[in-house]
Amino acid sequence: VARSVGTAYIATGHSRDDSIETVLLNVIRGAGIHGLRGLGPSTLLPLGLECKDDTVRDPFRLVRPLLVLSRRETEEYCVALGLEPREDLSNLSPDFLRNRVRHELLPLVRQMNQQFDDALLRLSAAARQDDDFLEREADTAWRRLVTVAPSHVCLDVPAFRSVAPALQARLVQRVFAALAGDTRDLTAAHICAVQSLAFAQGGKVVRVARDIVWRREGDRLLAFLEGFDPSAGRFLMPDEPVPLNIPGETWVPGWRVAAVIGDGTDMSSSPGVAAVFDADRVGRKLTVRRRRRGDRMQPLGMGGTKKLQDVLVDCKVPAVARDTVPIVCSGDDIVWVVGCRIDERFKVLPSTRSVLRLTFVPA
Questions:
Q1: Rounded CA gap, 164 and 169, in Å?
Q2: Which is deepest, 149, 271, 299, 313, by most CB within 10 Å?
Q3: Domain termination site, one of 205, 226, 247
Q4: Are residues 92 and 142 in the same domain?
């Protein structure tokens, strides 16, 4: 509706009582200082940004002009002007926690302290000031401590240790939001685990919500999505083999794999890492997986087999990156160590009638 009338602002009827209820709800749920802020007079509402023409427009701004008035005052105003506001019947249902706070908890607390509303709003205002101060400090700490890469975030451990625990928590929240898009599902226990990790030995790992992993490496604290190796800069290959669509395309972590079968006369180059094989000898039941202990192959040009470990060393693949190298297999046989070597047994020969071309394109 707002978009159709050409406005970027949406006004709501939230009152003083709504802000009080929000603060109490956040306390019940175990919120920190940020949750004590209550409702603000204005906030961005990033909804409806995806348009039919796939463009992204500025977010709406939600404004609450009635926050200074109580619910009773807004009702009296409507009566005085002969207005009939809409009543959401769900506001009467005890199935919702907010309604139980409104109709059961607040009346009881107000009997104990008739000035409770004013006291809670003073607490909210003080929390807002503290929260704003901590956010400014977190901005400064973020610029000094944090490095953001396309697929991971890195914190400087000595600097992280030197800041106050309250700022450490803010930084962990911001890192989580940078990777997950928001802080939903991040708990205080998760934050404490990451703070403890900063004081643990290197190599320790903490898994939090939304498939986000934290790992200590020397003086670095790395946060990344499960399955991505920030040290190698690539995604780890899966333990379980992923079947390839032949012909067709298959997605594996970090790669789009294209498989084309032809007679070898039209195998023009394309972006990515590519190799060709005798289609009849290699078959069509190929898979991609991570390296395994005991893997061996017969590198192109060799008469015998060789340990995969030695092949990777010969190809100068760093130790931290070896689990990110895709291994193409036909059954138990290694066909191709992507980016390194193909297997002698599946090479294209003068007698080859059909050629399979595999191309790995970074995704």
A1: 9
A2: 299
A3: 226
A4: no
Q: Does residue 212 share a domain with residue 147?
A: yes
- State how beta strands 42-45 and 60-63 pair: antiparallel
Residue 2 located in a structural domain? no
pLDDT score of 141:
95
Residue 238 vs residues 201, 235, 291, 324: alpha-carbon distances, Å: 27, 9, 9, 9
Query: Could you tell me if 202 and 304 lie in one domain?
Result: no
Query: How much is the pLDDT for 282?
Result: 94
DSSP string of 261-272, one letter each residue = EE-SS-----SS
Query: pLDDT at position 46, please?
Result: 54
Residue 186, φ and ψ in degrees, nearest 5: -85, 125
Q: What is residue 28's predicted lDDT score, i.e. its pLDDT? A: 93
Domain that holds residue 141: 134-226
Question: What CATH number is associated with residue 16?
Answer: 3.40.50.620
Q: Which residues of the chain have pLDDT under 70?
A: 46-59, 150, 201-203, 231-233, 264-271, 320
- pLDDT confidence of residue 332: 92
Q: Are 271 and 361 in contact (CB under 8 A)?
A: yes
With 0-12 / 13-18 / 19 or more C-beta atoms within 10 angstroms meaning exposed / middle / buried, residue 216 is buried
